[in-house]
Each structure stands twice: as C-alpha cells, then as structure tokens.
Amino acid sequence: MLRTCYFIGLLGLFAAIGCGEEVGGDPPVVDSGAIQGPSAPTPYALEVPDYFPAPVVDPDNPLTEEGIELGRHIFYDKEILSSDGSMSCASCHRQELAFTDGLNRSVGIRQLEGGRSAMSLVNLAFNPNGFNWDGSSTRLWEQAIHPVEDMLELDNDWEEVLRKLRTHDDYPARFRAAFGVDNRSEITRELTVKAIAQFERTIISADSKYDRVVYRNTDFFTEAEQLGADSLFFVENVPPGTLHPGCGHCHNAPGFGDNRFRNNGIEDVASLDDFVDKGLGGVTGSRFDNGKFRTPTLRNIALTAPYMHDGRFKTLEEVLDHYAGGGHDLENEDPNITGFPLTERQKAALLAFLGTLTDESLLTDERFSAPR
Ligand code: HEC
Ligand code: HEC
pTM, whole model, 2 decimals? Predict the structure, then answer.
C-alpha cells in the first residue's frame, strides 16, 4: 500500500503534518498554518447584455471579485497546474484564439494527443446542459478537476497541486480573501476548481459586429453579410419546402449554439454502434445517443479552426461543404441535416456572415488575460 506524507512550509519551518494511507482526495486536515489578511469576499454581479438569457446560477459557487481573481491566477499558472510546470489551462485555451488552441486535437504535457478538440470558453455561464462535447461534466467547477489529472492534459496529481497551493507565498491569502478560510489546510480541491469556474463564468463574448448591427444599431452589415444572415443562416423568410442551410435551427442567436446534443451528420459509419467517439452515448449509455455532441457556439468561429469535436475540418469552407452535402442517413441524425444547393456567391455570403461573429475586444480584454 502506498504511503504519502504532506509537508507545509511555514515561517521557514517544515512540519510533517500527516502521513497516511493513500486514499485520494484532499490531504488530511491539521491544525497549523493560520492565514492572515482580509476574509470578506465582495459579491460580483455578472454584466450580461439585456438580449442574453439569464445566466445559469450556481448557488454552491456565488461569484465574488476575489474568487474570480484567484481563479484567473490559477487558470494561467503552469507551476501549480502541470506536473512539469510546462502548461496551464491557458495553454490549450488561448485568449487570442477565443480560448481554443488551434489544434485539431489537444496535446498535453507528454506531447500525447487527446481524442478531442479544445472548446472555446466563452459564454459558459449560459450553458444549462453539461460541459465538454459530450456533456460529461454537469457542473462547471467539476469540469476543471479533470484536465489537471488527465494524463493526456496536465498529468498532475491533486494532492501535489494542493501541496503547492498551501505552501505558496501568495495563494493562501487569496484563498482567504475569496473563501474566508482561516488555515492553509482548508485550501481544498473543491475551492480551487470553484475559483477557476468563477473566472470562467465571467468570460462573456458579446461585442461582435453582429451584436453592434443587430442589438446596438451602431454598425451596418455589408451586402454579403446581410445576404448570409437573412437568406441563408437564419430560417425566417424561407418558403416552405425550400432546401436551406438553416444553421440557425441549432446555432441560434444570441448564443449561436443552443447547447443541445445532436448528431450533425459528420460521421459515415455503418450503424449506431460504430462511432469511434460515442459522444453523448458514452455518457448516457443509450445507443441512440451515440454520435451526438453538444451544439457549440459559433461566436468567434473564424478564430477557432479546426472544427468539430475531433477537429476534422480545417476550414469553414470544408464545414459548409459538409452541411451542403447533407449527412449520412443514420437513424439518429438530426432532421435539420439535409443537403442544400450552395452557389459560390451564397457560400461567400455565409462565410462573410460567420465573420461578423468575431469579437475582437474579447481577445485583448485584460480581465481575461494572464495576471501580471
Ligand atoms: C491539453 C489541452 C487542454 C488543457 C491543458 C485544458 N483543456 Fe480544457 N478542454 C480541452 C479539450 C480537448 C476539451 C474538450 C473535452 C471533451 O469534450 O472531452 C476541453 C474542454 C473544456 C471545457 C468545456 C467547455 C464547454 O463548453 O463545455 C472547459 C470549461 C475547460 N476545458 C476548461 C479547462 C480548464 C479550467 C483547464 C485547466 C484546469 C483546462 N481546460 C485545461 C483541452 C484542454
Ligand atoms: C441540426 C443542428 C445543426 C445544424 C442545422 C447546423 N449545425 Fe453546426 N453543429 C451542430 C453540432 C451538433 C455540432 C457539433 C458536432 C461535432 O463536433 O461532432 C456543430 C458544429 C459546427 C461547427 C464546428 C464548431 C467548432 O467549435 O468546432 C461549425 C463551424 C458549424 N457547426 C457551423 C454550422 C453552419 C455554418 C451551419 C449551417 C450551414 C450549421 N452549423 C448547421 C449542429 C448543427
């Protein structure tokens, strides 16, 4: 049986604070390491545009200024998060790429490729349907546990993360400020991921050309953008029976992804049992859910190539060719996946429209950047 010991460095003295059998979870709590400093967190109200839905509130993790700031520090901290100090969350969720990584499938600290493409982290506060492509994490803070310990991602051990946080010069006071803890030993995995989730919930993207034209009336679409919006992307104004892209069926405004799980027809497999990645089916165990993935946001889509859960399409042109070609007639394909004619002019219009979903201010907003 493995035995582990924990040490807390305090005032230059190292005190062995517990040696026990490895059970996983948090190191044992001992009475040492009082933290000084303020402990009254300041409630934070999310600034949500009036045309957005109400954010999903997590009563177990209310937002506070100090919690968000702590989460931002951890999100960007390679030393704390990865076993070799080489990567943080931000290595795969890069602000300049709308918090994706530009790879078809993510590569972790061991240079091994994972099975899926990194997701954009914008507007997570509005997703009621579970996180990850397959919805496998029901709560945002719970999601953050996994990349830390995944061998294909940060390949760390939570006990090691907590040991570093508890013995750090700066973090204990930040945990006290955010969560009111009195003692270093009260810094837990749950508080760590809750802080990260608080930071993530503040990342709101609502400053694209689309927002300026449609909701703020301070800008205009070009002719091509207008054509893309009115007659192609959205489904209004289309005579019944017309073969039509209808992207807005599933990628509807203002989120441009309704977070529901669907098979959008990308996979050419013989039967529902043959998906390489079962997606939602892997979570629910239901065969009919195999090959269904969460409908993601198209906000900032021009920046987040390659596309789909496995990054199979390098460009948006390839994505449009897929949808225009229709699916593969599997019984669980969404009924809105039907082929449609797409002229070069219409294709250019759809691409122009998709370009209006880019939010440049998000990419440099210092509230979401690495702390200095
Ligand atoms: C090695 C690259 C990598 C690292 C490091 C990484 N992620 Fe991710 N992230 C991914 C991939 C790939 C997915 C999609 C996972 C899936 O669907 O199974 C993802 C998905 C997510 C999602 C889900 C978003 C949504 O809309 O459902 C969140 C939130 C997230 N990551 C946060 C984090 C946080 C927080 C960290 C650091 C603790 C982190 N990630 C570290 C690659 C990475
Ligand atoms: C039936 C619902 C549905 C319709 C209609 C639809 N999509 Fe999708 N879309 C999805 C789903 C589900 C996914 C995720 C599939 C996956 O990754 O396996 C997706 C993924 C995407 C992606 C990749 C996003 C990323 O982050 O990698 C793009 C781009 C996209 N769709 C664009 C469009 C466009 C443009 C149209 C119209 C031509 C369209 N979609 C129509 C459901 C739909």
Answer: 0.92
